[in-house]
Amino acid sequence: MMAALMGSTIEAVLMTAPGRPLERRRVDLPRPRSGGAILETVASEVCGTDVHLWHGRLAGVPYPIIPGHVSVGRLLESGGEVADVEGRAIAPATLVTFYDVYGACGACWQCAVARTPNRCPKRRVYGITAGADDGILGGWAERIEILPGVRLVPLPEGIDEADFLGGGCGLPTGFHAVERAGVALGDTVVVQGSGPVGLNAAIFAQLAGASRVFVVGAPKARLEAARRLGAEDVLDLAEIAAPEDRVRWVRDRTSGRGADVVIEASGNPAAVPEGLDMLRDAGRYVIVGHYTDSGETALNPHRHVNRKHATILGCWGYEFTHLHRSLAMLARHASRFRWRDLVTREYALGDAQRALEDMERLAVVKALIRPGR
Ligand SMILES: [Zn+2]
Ligand SMILES: [Zn+2]
Question: What one-character DSSP code corresponds to residue 362?
């Protein structure tokens, strides 16, 4: 069967430009490069980033692209032996995901001096900043090309694609935000935003030792998910519309002081001053929801930052370590948090357009594309 695929073509979905309907095309299936591999796609996530891509909200995107940055597949063929991070060979047919970032050079100032490869100018991401002309570098396709140097990660025993993609990119991103916040035992944490990043931040805040987690967001289905995942209380933005009332809601639940940690995962600039008002003096505020530029907001430097003695941290993307460790946590806690239940709907490759539009209007928490359908 593998021989039959060589030199053949496979079906992929292309996003040719912002705002244009997605196109189904047959593309050439390459042979794996030395140190690289070809995966048979099992499932790929649909997330808010795909909507941003379709709206043209991200800079430096080499359209046309094959969307789908976080994916799961079976190892079909490799260019020589491929191994996991512990050096164990990965056998054909193993169910794997991979770190979607590649190309960070290790040699530039950002990589080598500042040790922030997440800001390396050469860094590229499958399904986002990888062009369709460079290969099948996105998961909305029947096969995915793994370039040499891209790190494959076998899914842990007992974990399947729905478990992992129920977390999706929100899993390592939420994990990273909680790590960045330095959540401590007994902390009270407010999460602004109830999308996948916010929900995963709520999960990992609890696993990091937070005694109480509150989630501020919308719509209802996402807030119900937050409750199921252990949020003590949720605030529906549609019900409490005035920012000062939302701040009071948090203060009423924290002896008037505000939360120890507030994690912004909403993408709304106005959430930032509001979240700082929800934060206690000397608390920690992490901004992870502004993956795209949604505009400006005004802060009062005296009240929001200086007098408050606040720590404000940005959180850009995630490193391999966050993927690796968040997946280990998922494997350990999948029965408690049931990430797979966050998958609201699954779509065949031919229904990718509908999946994108459902995500655009927040009709789904997490959606999967299953090319094999
Ligand atoms: Zn670099
Ligand atoms: Zn994503």
Answer: T
> From CA 152, how far away is CA 144, in angstroms rounded?
12
For ligand 1, the distance from its centroid to the CA atom of residue 101, given in whole angstroms, is 12
DSSP code of residue 133: G
Structure confidence at residue 198 (pLDDT):
98
**Alpha carbon of 255 to ligand 1 centroid (Å):** 46
- Distance (Å) from CA 112 to ligand 1 centroid: 7
Q: Could you report the per-residue pLDDT of 199-233, keeping only the tens digit for each? A: 999 999 999 999 999 999 999 999 999 999 999 99
Asked if 102 contacts 86 with a C-beta cutoff of 8 angstroms, the reply is no
> Which residues make Cβ contacts (< 8 Å) with residue 248, sequence separation at least 6?
none
CB 218 within 8 A of CB 194: yes
Nearest 5 degrees, angle CA 216-CA 266-CA 66?
A: 140
- The answer to whether residues 40 and 111 touch, using CB atoms and an 8 Å cutoff, is no
Provide the b/e sequence for 164-192 (b: ≥16 CB within 10 Å): bbbbbbbbbbbbbbbbbbebeeebbbbbb
Give 75 Cα–ligand 2 centroid separation in angstroms: 22
Distance of alpha carbon 109 from alpha carbon 297, whole angstroms: 31
The predicted model scores a pTM of: 0.95
Q: How far is the CA of 161 from the centre of ligand 2 (A)?
A: 14
Is the pLDDT confidence value at 136 over 70? yes
Find all residues with CB under 8 Å of 360, minimum gap 6, and list them.
Answer: 51, 54
Q: Give residue-wise pLDDT tens across range 20-56.
A: 999 999 999 999 999 999 999 999 999 999 999 999 9
Query: Helical H runs in the chain?
Result: 2-5, 48-54, 161-167, 170-181, 196-207, 220-228, 243-252, 271-277, 320-337, 352-360
